[in-house]
Protein: Large ribosomal subunit protein uL29
Amino acid sequence: MKQSEIKELSTADLNEKLGALQKNYTDLKMAHAITPLENPLQLRGLRRTVARIATELTKRELQ
Structure:
């Protein structure tokens, strides 16, 4: 997800998407620990997307 897409979403949508992405990241991480993923860069992409959404939520709380 790009930053411009994240800014367009509402706070409720961001909270919902953050929960889903964190669960997806945890599941992928566990799957990777058992058997290596075909594309381990998926983990990096998900982690960064979670960070982008969390940053946007924090930014909105401070405003």
Observations:
- DSSP finds three helices and no strands in the chain.
- The two ends are 23 Å apart (CA to CA).
- The CA atoms of residues 36 and 63 lie 42 Å apart.
- The chain has a mean pLDDT of 96.
